[in-house]
Structures are given as structure tokens and as C-alpha cells.
């Protein structure tokens, strides 16, 4: 992949959109929302959530008194429906406590500086971390490339920001709006380099631990609701 890209590169930015994109100019300061829902919690806590959600989702399938094929307990349905919303709320509370963050986090990108929400995720104390453009030596973009018979698309997975003093900060697509950030970094002429990569085993395992139990609970809740009320 070439060492430079432009904002009109459809392979990279065909579907990239954010508030203020169409009004960009040299003096623009763009804020991008950071999603904290799946910030990583300590492994033991992630494991507890995984086991509990998986056990709850499998309960109707293994308990012969409430077999999913012959469910008749509306009370059980009403218990299952709020499980996922409650899990997300509890997780968000724990994330806020663990990272000592407020209700909303933003990344700010301008022609002069990159401003990040500072917390233990990037190895800095809470508040804001301001990285002046002139103090940034390089931003390495790790990306995944998808090629089909009709198209080529590239998606950034990780940004590694290296300062002139050789300090490094890693931002992952799991927690930051990497693609929109890359568009802005390209527009404002930040020093970028590119490295092709792929989803690692650890990333896939973490996604499995986070997503599969939630999907199982949603599926069971839907089946219970359908059998009880429809």
C-alpha cells in the first residue's frame, strides 16, 4: 500500500462519514465520539460476565421444566427481556469506575493538535492528552484489506502515535473512531505510515467473549417472548 493517501480515496473513505465532514477547512476542529461500552475490564471480570450470560442463555435449553419447545412461563420471559439492557448498564458503570471517566468522551482533531481522552487505556491519567501536530513524529496505521472481484476496501484497525521523544500511544478500533480519525489526519496532513495486518487470535477471542453470550441471551429472550406473547 502507498505511504500516502488522500481523502478522496474511495478504497479507504467511501463510507466514512461524521458530523462536520462537508464543512471541513484548515481551521476546523472536529470532535468524534468515543464509545466506552466495550472498553476492556479486568480479565477475571470479563470471564465472570461471560460465564453468567452463557449460563443464563442456556438455562431454558437444559432445564426440562422450561424447555424452549414447550415454554409456558410468561414470568420467565419478563425476567429475560431486561437482562441485556441491565448488563450493558452495569458494564458501563464498571467501565466509568475503572477508567474514572465521565459520561461522554471525545477525540478532537485539528490542523494543530490531536486531543485524546486520557485514562489508563492509553497509559495516562484522566483528563485530556494534547498532542501537538509538530510533536508527532509518525502515526503508523495498521489496516486490513478486503479484496473481491469487483472492489478493494481498506479499514484501519489501529493507530500507533509516536512522538518526537519516542513515546508511543496505541489507539484501537475497538474503542476509538479510527476510520474517521484517519480521514481527518489525512486531511490535515499528519505524518502517516501504513502496515497491513489482520484480526489476531486474541482480538477474535475477546470479541467472542463479549458478543456471543449477549447474542445467545437475545436469541433466547426473543424465543421466549414469541412463545409466550405471540
Low-confidence stretches: 66-71
Count helical runs.
6
Beta-strand portion reads 25-35%
Strand count, sense and barrel status of the largest sheet are:
4 strands, antiparallel
Number of strands: 8
Based on helices, strands and strand pairing, what is the structural class?
alpha+beta
Which strand order do you get reading across the main beta sheet?
Answer: 1-2-3-4
- SSE string: HEHHHEEEEEEHEH
**Straight-line distance between termini:** 53 Å
* Cα shape: globular
Helix content: 25-40%
Radius of gyration: 22 Å
* Overall average residue pLDDT: 81
Protein architecture, described:
Strands 1-2-3-4 form a 4-stranded antiparallel sheet, with helices on one face. A 4-stranded mixed sheet has the order 7-6-5-8. It is of the alpha+beta class and 230 residues long. It starts with 9 loop residues before the first helix and ends with a helix. The protein is built from 6 helices and 8 strands. The longest helix has 29 residues, at 201-229. The model is unreliable at 66-71 (pLDDT under 50).
Task: Explain briefly what this protein structure is.
The protein has 230 residues and is an alpha+beta fold. Helices cover 38% and strands 25% of the residues.
Kindly list the characteristics that best describe this protein.
four-stranded antiparallel β-sheet; 230 residues; alpha+beta; four-stranded mixed β-sheet
Amino acid at each position: 500500500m502507498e505511504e500516502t493517501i488522500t481523502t478522496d480515496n474511495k478504497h479507504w473513505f467511501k463510507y466514512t462519514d461524521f458530523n462536520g465532514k462537508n464543512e471541513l477547512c484548515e481551521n476546523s476542529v472536529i470532535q468524534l465520539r468515543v464509545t466506552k461500552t466495550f472498553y476492556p475490564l479486568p480479565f477475571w471480570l470479563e470471564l465472570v460476565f461471560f460465564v453468567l450470560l452463557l449460563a443464563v442463555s442456556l438455562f431454558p435449553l437444559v432445564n426440562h421444566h422450561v424447555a424452549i419447545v414447550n415454554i409456558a412461563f410468561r414470568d420467565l420471559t419478563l425476567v429475560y427481556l431486561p437482562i441485556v439492557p441491565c448488563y450493558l448498564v452495569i458494564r458501563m458503570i464498571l467501565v466509568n469506575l475503572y477508567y474514572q471517566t465521565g459520561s461522554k468522551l471525545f477525540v478532537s482533531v485539528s490542523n494543530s493538535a490531536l486531543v485524546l481522552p486520557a485514562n489508563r487505556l492509553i497509559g495516562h491519567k484522566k483528563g485530556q492528552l494534547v498532542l501537538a501536530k509538530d510533536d508527532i513524529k509518525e502515526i503508523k496505521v495498521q489496516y486490513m484489506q478486503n479484496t473481491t472481484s469487483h472492489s478493494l476496501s481498506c479499514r484501519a484497525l489501529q493507530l500507533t502515535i509516536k512522538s518526537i521523544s519516542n513515546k508511543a500511544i496505541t489507539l484501537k478500533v475497538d474503542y476509538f473512531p479510527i476510520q474517521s480519525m484517519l480521514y481527518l489526519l489525512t486531511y490535515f496532513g499528519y505524518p502517516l505510515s501504513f502496515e497491513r495486518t489482520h484480526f489476531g487470535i486474541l482480538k477474535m477471542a475477546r470479541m467472542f467473549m463479549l458478543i456471543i453470550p449477549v447474542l445467545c441471551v437475545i436469541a433466547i429472550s426473543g424465543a421466549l417472548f414469541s412463545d409466550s406473547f405471540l
